[in-house]
Amino acid sequence: MNVAFLTIGQSPRHDMADPIEESLPAGTTVVHSGLLDGLSRPEIEAAYGDGGAGQGLITRLADGSSVTMRVEAVEEGLRTKVASLTEGGVDAIVLLCTGEFPSLRSGDVWLIEPDTVLTGYVVSLFAQVRVGMILPMAGQVDDARVKWRGLADPIFAFASPYSDDVEALVAAAYDLVDAGARALVLDCMGFSRRHREALRARGVEVPVLVANEVVGGVVRIAFS
């Protein structure tokens, strides 16, 4: 079995891929690929940058810095990357982003899109419960309202997964809980187990779902 992990940033992104890779059968061959691999920051800004609008998708580069990109440009680039990976003979591609990319096609290769996995899972569990969504950027809220329309009355707050300081995340979580959220979803693959653990350590008691762990659970079932 050959599985490719595809990030919208620069690969490898072990922080996102490892919880999913742990779910794969022994002997699986893993390939890491990134939309921005081999590109300098000026090249990235020219091809994908959102011009500071703060309404696109955020990702981390190999040097640890982050960049915000236009959704349309990312989707176009991902189409090329997916085509290249399918031609390369992989059996499955795991996209490491919770963004919506409706035009992606992978032929006979299984394409695992966290957006579809996460929304389906959360709506099935919490359709009648008020859920708080923590997004990376405030500019994503309009798209997020459409994405989470299957929930009764979702509410939104914002914190970057790429900050070493978790205070903004903790504050966002408490704002949502105080507003009536009975579960929290960290809606970006950049969030990880350590973010949930940080919330638990600061006394957040409601369920906290982390996107890459949800995807890992689905992969574990599918490959078992």
How would you summarize this macromolecular structure in one to three sentences?
This protein has helices at 14-21, 41-48, 71-87, 114-126, 141-147, 167-178, 193-201, 211-223, and strands at residues 2-7, 29-34, 57-60, 66-69, 92-95, 110-112, 131-135, 155-158, 183-186, 208-210. Helices cover 39% and strands 19% of the residues.
Features:
4-stranded parallel sheet; 39% helix; globular; 224 residues; alpha/beta
Topology:
Elements: E1 2-7, H1 14-21, E2 29-34, H2 41-48, E3 57-60, E4 66-69, H3 71-87, E5 92-95, E6 110-112, H4 114-126, E7 131-135, H5 141-147, E8 155-158, H6 167-178, E9 183-186, H7 193-201, E10 208-210, H8 211-223
Parallel strand pairs: 1-2, 1-5, 5-6, 7-8, 7-9, 9-10
Antiparallel strand pairs: 3-4
